[in-house]
Amino acid sequence: MSNPLIKITNIKRDFVLGNEIVYVLKGIDLEINKGEYVALMGPSGSGKSTLMNLLGCLDTPTSGTYILNGKDVSKMKDDELAEIRNKEIGFVFQTFNLLPRTTALDNVALPMIYAGYSKSERSARAAEVLTQVNLEDRMDHQPNQLSGGQRQRVAIARALVNKPSIILADEPTGNLDTKTSDEIMKLFNDIHANGNTVILVTHEEEIAAYAHRIIRLRDGMVESDIKK
Ligand SMILES: Nc1ncnc2c1ncn2[C@@H]1O[C@H](COP(=O)(O)OP(=O)(O)OP(=O)(O)O)[C@@H](O)[C@H]1O
Ligand SMILES: [Mg+2]
């Protein structure tokens, strides 16, 4: 069918460290369609987070092209990238990255400030997404008044608030116990079922089993790419 949501061609990313150049991504080609559910796996240091940062427009490649939703983002400036990121991408991190001393409602509403919504629109939408992740009775709680699983739900609600086209999650269950991980993965299943494209990094085969496609990186290259 039509154009892929994500099309990266011969993406390389290296970092200059003193006199040395560290070659991290060594030429990656990937197409991901709208509505896919992808797990990104591979050994520590293989380049998963580096690739996620590029996919999420938090970083730009050293060379190669990245077409996101028909737009070439590989050569965009920081302010253009920030705009794309805010509109198209929801990020979920292993360590939740919530603002302390800030309620769940305000944490979730935050990305809407940059998108230019009014205070009442922001609160209404944040309440709606918090309800979607079953936290309607915790909206006024601050992160330190929530469990790990609840904090991750707040982070997921924040990722969803601007209705992005892609949800990127870098080891979203890495800090959670097995039972809580399963609950969070059920939530990602729902998000995917609602039509979102989901890409998540995990070290655990049981977590990757939720996805419909598993891409394995090794040493900065795609080692295998298997669709169920
Ligand atoms: N800013 C940077 N400067 C120099 N080297 C970097 C930088 N960012 C990442 N690297 C190197 O790139 C390699 C890949 O890092 P990356 O974080 O992408 O791995 P990963 O696959 O996510 O690993 P993990 O499973 O441990 O999270 C590592 O060797 C790392 O040291
Ligand atoms: Mg990583």
From TrEMBL:
Residues 6-226 form the ABC transporter domain. The keyword Translocase does not apply. GO terms for cellular component: membrane protein complex; plasma membrane. One of its GO terms (molecular function) is ATP hydrolysis activity. Pfam families: ABC_tran (PF00005). PROSITE patterns: ABC_TRANSPORTER_1, ABC_TRANSPORTER_2. Coiled coil: none annotated. SMART domains: AAA (SM00382). The keyword ATP-binding applies. Belongs to the ABC transporter superfamily. Macrolide exporter (TC 3.A.1.122) family. This is Putative ABC transport system ATP-binding protein. It comes from Flavobacterium degerlachei.
